[in-house]
Amino acid sequence: MLDIYTIGADVLRQKAVPVEHFDDALAALVESMFETMKMGKGVGLAAPQVGLGHRLFIVQIEGDKQRVFVNPEIIETSVDLAEFEEGCLSIPGVYADLERPREIRVQAWNERGRRFVLGADGFLARVIQHELDHLNGVLFTDRLPERSRDRLLKQYEKRMRA
Predict the structure, then answer these.
(1) Contact 52, 134 (CB under 8 A)
(2) CA distance 32 to 30
(3) Is-catalytic flag, 131?
(4) CA–CA distance, 121 with 127 (Å, rounded to integer)
C-alpha cells in the first residue's frame, strides 16, 4: 500500500509531467494505486496523491470496471452542469457540493500504452474531472467559493489538530 499525501503536501500543487514509459514499473504502480484506493475507500486516485508527479490516475466506481488514465486530456465537455457532493482522499472528511460538466469526452492511454477515447456522464464524468484536476495541481476545494472553501479548510485543520 502506498501513502496518500494530504493537503499541504507540495506534490498536490504541482502540475504533473507526462508518462513516457509504459513498462512493468508502470503496471506495478497502477496495481499498487488500486490497492491503496480500495483501502482508502475511494473511487479515484491520482499519482500526485501518492507522491508522484506523473500524469496518471485510476478510477473504479461501483458497478464499473477498473479504469486507468495515462496522460489524459478532456477533449469535450457538455454545457449542462450537474451539482454533486465531492470528497477527496487527500482531504479526508471534507465534503462539498460542486458543479461540473455533466458529460465529458476524455482521451488517454491505458497502462499498456493503448490510446482510447471515452465518453462519460454522471458520476464517472465527475470522478474523471476530479482526478484530472489533481494532475494540474488543483484540489476540489479550489473550485468552491472562497468563503465556503475557507470554512471547510478551517474545520479540517481543527479536526487534524484534535
Answers:
(1) no
(2) 5
(3) yes
(4) 10
Helix ranges (DSSP H) in the chain = 24-39, 122-135, 146-161
The total of other beta-carbon atoms located within 10 Å of residue 127's CB is 23
Q: What is the mean pLDDT of residues 84-108?
A: 97
CATH code for the domain defined by 10-161: 3.90.45.10
Catalytic residue among 20, 62, 103, 131: 131
pLDDT tens digit sequence for 58-78: 999 999 999 999 999 999 999
Give domain limits for the chain: 10-161
d(CA 76, CA 121): 12
Instruction: Please tell me the total number of residues recorded for the chain in this structure.
Output: 162
For the entire predicted model, the pTM comes to 0.96
Q: What's the whole-number mean pLDDT along residues 39-64?
A: 97
